[in-house]
Amino acid sequence: MYVSDLALNDFRSYHELVLALEPGVTAFVGQNGQGKTNLVEAIAYLSTFSSHRVAADAALVRQGTGGAVVRAKVVHGERPTLVELEIVAGKANRARLNRAPTRTREVLGVVRTVLFAPEDLELVKGDPAHRRRFLDDLVVLLSPRLAGVRAEYDKVLRQRGALLKSAGAARRRGGRPDLSTLDVWDGQLAAAGAQIVAARTRLVRRLRPFVATAYEQVSAGQGAARIGYRASVDAAEGAEEITAAELDATPAAQEAAESREAALMDVPAVSRRLLAAMGEMREKEIDRGVSLVGPHRDDLVLSLGALPAKGYASHGESWSFALALRLASYEVLREDDTSPWGVDGEPVLILDDVFAELDARRRERLADMVAGAQQVLITAAVAEDVPQALTGARFHVHAGEVTRGD
Ligand SMILES: Nc1ncnc2c1ncn2[C@@H]1O[C@H](COP(=O)(O)OP(=O)(O)OP(=O)(O)O)[C@@H](O)[C@H]1O
Ligand SMILES: [Mg+2]
To answer: Are residues 158 and 298 both part of a single domain?
Structure first.
């Protein structure tokens, strides 16, 4: 798919912007702070309903105004679709599809994007929440139904947390809290949690070969990148972590990891296991006032050769790993044909400020890898940073004005 038209109202620094785009490579060039990232952020927002830069939507709405509108025409195969999202700070988004008001969830999955930005370094160096979000965003793009499951899980987790806290407080006062509602939350948490664990594990398996290949290509064959899913339910059951070094050294470790992973895709079984783990840990959970097992405590484990990436990988290696994760996402979406919008699942690839961080060789390699994508949107502060191989449309971005250049 590709975006053929974009219109912004009061989004970030833009009061009003109308822009026609084409398939192929488009570069947005301009000095710092001129609105390049704002532009691509708007397009990415249509696919994930969230920004790669801020957690709250308030910053997306132009200062001093009440709401922002992002409108785009996207083309799947030959078929155009009009998508519109209105962002009102502190309120739920309003959505339109082909001009008709609709529920926002109907819009999920219509626009597919994969965005790579400097912030993605956190995928490797940051805490697990970044990696969980990476997986969940992609899971939802692939099967929008899971957005509901994820929202349900978050809601139940909050309510269960509040109940655990008040039970703990009551107990410390010497009372005997009523724990019957906790059983209900346990069941709901386990049911939704198992679906998330299974979906993430399936995704990790789909991503794995692409991550390895992309890392090899970006880094010119230095080291093998591997990803794995670390489930808190395994740890709660006392299973010891299988390290990258063990995976490297013995086939037995690989088999053990494989069967553990396969078990995580069995939804009813994982649901039972989560429930049992919660039963085991109830006292501890009441003590601490938090839910200790479930997908909110899981992680995506990244390793390079026999070493974990986090804490060991160099700056450049971390960059390459983060980039490999995004390129692998792109490949998974491209080969996915389950979208109701037809077989054209290929996402728009967005590279925000990426080339400046790479040395000349890595730049050329990345350029070669993305040159064949249906639509690539690139931002750069310096025109020379965009590799020559990536010919296509150029826009200059200055003070919120976007003009076509060469
Ligand atoms: N909600 C908002 N309302 C008004 N202006 C905003 C809002 N959010 C961001 N801005 C402004 O947008 C500008 C940043 O734009 P953007 O991040 O797109 O820059 P850029 O062109 O990508 O720069 P760089 O090359 O440094 O990455 C800043 O000047 C910032 O003050
Ligand atoms: Mg920027």
So the answer is: yes
Domain of 296 in residue numbering reads as 145-304
Count CA atoms closer than 13 A to 120's CA, side-chain side. Answer: 25
Neighbours of ion ligand 2 (CB under 5 A): 37
pLDDT tens digit sequence for 324-356: 999 999 999 998 877 766 557 799 999 999 998
Nearest CA residue ID for atom 13, ligand 1 = 33
Same domain assignment for residues 30 and 175: no
CATH number for 97: 3.40.50.300
CA 223 to chain centre: 25
Residues 288 and 349 in one domain: no
Chain position carrying tokens 């590709």: 2
Ligand nearest to C-alpha 13: 1
Number of the ligand 1 atom closest to the C-alpha atom of 53: 17
SS3 253: helix
Which residue, among 3, 2, 6, 4, has the nearest Cα to 85 in the 3D structure? 6
Closest atom of ligand 1 relative to the 39 alpha carbon: 18
- Give the Å distance between the CA of 126 and the centre of ligand 2: 20
Answer yes or no: is 132 within a domain.
no
pLDDT in tens, 223-257: 799 999 999 999 999 999 999 999 988 999 999 99
CA atoms within 13 A on the CB side of 380: 19
Distance 12 CA to ligand 1 centre (A): 7
Q: Is residue 320 part of a domain?
A: no
- Count: domains in the chain: 2
Do 269 and 397 sit in the same domain of this protein? no
Whether 49 and 161 map to the same domain: the answer is: no
Q: Which atom of ligand 1 is nearest to the CA of 353?
A: 27
> Ligand 1 pocket by C-beta < 6 Å: which residues?
12-13, 30, 32-38, 59, 61-63, 353, 379, 381, 397
Residues 96-122 have a mean pLDDT of: 93
Element (H, E) at 229: strand 225-230
Indicate whether 295 and 365 sit together in one domain: no
Asked if 378 and 43 count as a contact pair (C-beta separation under 8 A), the reply is: no
Q: For residue 162, is it within any domain?
A: yes
- CB distance 302 to 310 below 8 Å: yes
